[in-house]
Amino acid sequence: MIQPYPGANTSGVWSKLFLLLVVIAVLLAITRPRHIVSNEIYQFDQPETAATWGTDTTPPTTSGKESSRVIFTRPFQLTGGRNLQVIGYSKVDNAWVYVGGDIVNDSTGQIESFDLPIEYWEGYDDGHWTEGSQTHVVYIPPLPAGSYTMRLEAQWEGNTRPTVQVELKEGGFRWTHFWLALLFITIPAIFLNIRRSSFESRRWSNADFTMIGQRR
């Protein structure tokens, strides 16, 4: 007698887990709305201090071909317990600008650092090509609720116009986690399906009929 495959129905289990992941992702996206806590455009090469920037902002400095400047943002409030997303955008063209940032708790001095390297290059070499991006996004783990300030230090080279928009968002679901979880449940499912297919091939190898019911 030909014994059936002793394992579980992998496709059915995977389908249920996939549906569960989708439901969880949708619920998190609904219950954790993302909101903007800071969104400013900083012109790092301006010698004067803009009214929207902090009083500790320093003037630009130059060393060789590179220039740099430190800017402190206005204080902003975090509700706490939610991921942070920092988006840096600069309309650089065949140039680069680097922004190193610190999110500083105004009460405790706690610091969370991040980097925004932005570079974009394009040209023609047997056709048009591009490299890099004018946008860079980083994610930061949740910070305690309270008042915060960002310290932004920019570096740029030559005649680059170091105008950078820095947007800070709190909350929101990271879909990267969804895709990682999907990969986590899919890899074992593929392995088990291969194992089941191999078992079925051996099981029917000596039978008078094939797996689809045709006589050999």
Briefly say what this structure is.
By secondary structure, the chain is α+β, with helices and mostly antiparallel strands. It has 2 helices and 11 strands.
CATH fold description of the largest domain: Jelly Rolls
End-to-end distance? 17 Å
What's the tally of helices?
A: 2
Under the CATH scheme, which class of the largest domain? Mainly Beta
CATH A-level architecture of the largest domain: Sandwich
Please tell me about this protein's structure.
The strands form two sheets. Strands 2, 3, 4, 6, 7, 8 and 10 form a seven-stranded antiparallel sheet that branches. This protein has a four-stranded antiparallel sheet with strand order 1-11-5-9, with no helix packed on it. The two termini are 17 Å apart. It has two domains: 1-32 and 174-204; 34-172, Jelly Rolls. It is flat. It has 216 residues and is of the alpha+beta class. Strand 7 (111-124) and strand 8 (128-133) form a beta hairpin. It has helices at residues 10-31, 175-204, and strands spanning 35-43, 61-63, 66-72, 76-78, 84-89, 95-105, 111-124, 128-133, 135-140, 146-157, 163-170.
Topology:
Elements: H1 10-31, E1 35-43, E2 61-63, E3 66-72, E4 76-78, E5 84-89, E6 95-105, E7 111-124, E8 128-133, E9 135-140, E10 146-157, E11 163-170, H2 175-204
Antiparallel strand pairs: 1-11, 2-3, 3-10, 4-10, 5-9, 5-11, 6-7, 6-10, 7-8
Entry keywords:
single chain, 216 residues, alpha+beta, Jelly Rolls, seven-stranded antiparallel sheet, four-stranded antiparallel sheet, 11 strands, 24% helix, 39% strand
